[in-house]
Every structure is written in structure tokens, then in C-alpha cells.
Amino acid sequence: MSDCIFCKIAAGEMGTEFIYEDDQVVAFRDINPVAPVHILVIPKKHIPSANELTEADNQLIGHIFQVIKKLAQKENLNQGYRIVNNCGREGGQTVHHLHFHLLGGRNLQWPPG
Length: 113
Ligand code: DGP
Prior knowledge:
Layout: H1 5-10, E1 20-21, E2 25-29, E3 37-43, H2 58-74, E4 82-84, E5 100-104
Antiparallel strand pairs: 1-2, 2-3, 3-5, 4-5
The chain binds 2'-deoxyguanosine-5'-monophosphate (DGP).
Organism: Anoxybacter fermentans
Active site: 99
Protein name: Histidine triad nucleotide-binding protein
């Protein structure tokens, strides 16, 4: 989608450093980190939110979770981490391109705000 910031990032148009890339996804560090490790993992395909996922995306979502697991190992998050997907306005979603936050490196509190 031409006016989507994450589509532009995934296309390499923003000069964002990728910490992981394959044919389906890219991962990069969040511009406003809320934890020592704060990585965003996004599909290259434009999907506005988790609410628009279909059965056809099942493989993609499974793949994203495999990528997250590998990134967590690479970042030495041996004590645990959190995967967050904000969906919709009340869910706190601000960028309308599906993304998963990988958070770690400190004790994360529950419940979130
Ligand atoms: P969410 O609230 O779940 O939609 O999170 C969107 C996140 O995206 C937010 O933590 C900030 C991050 N973000 C927004 N624009 C950019 C950008 O241009 N570069 C990077 N690295 N992160 C961005």
C-alpha cells in the first residue's frame, strides 16, 4: 500500500536497518523502544491488522512466530519475553500494517496499561 509506512520500510524505501529478512517478513528495531529489546516483526504483504487475517495467512503467522523465536534466541532473551499484537483503536494499534512486538530484556509487568 503506497501510503503505509511499514510497506515502505519493508520495501527498503526508508533506509531502516533490518535485523532479519526473508521472502515473507522483515524485522527491525522499534523507533520508540519500551524495553531493552523491542523488535517489530512484520509481513511484507500488507495486512491492516489481525482482524483481517484469513485462513490463507495461517502459514505466514506460523512463520512469523518461528522468526520471533529465533530472534529471541539471537537477542539472548533466555529469561523470557513478550509478543504483543495491538489490534484496532482500543487495542492501541497506531500503524495499520500487521506487526508483532518482541519485547524483552527486563521484567515485564502484567496487566499492561
Ligand atoms: P502499534 O502501537 O502496535 O501500532 O505500534 C507501532 C510501533 O511502530 C510503535 O511502537 C512505533 C513503531 N514505529 C512507527 N513508525 C516507525 C518507523 O518509521 N520506524 C520504526 N523503526 N518504528 C516505527
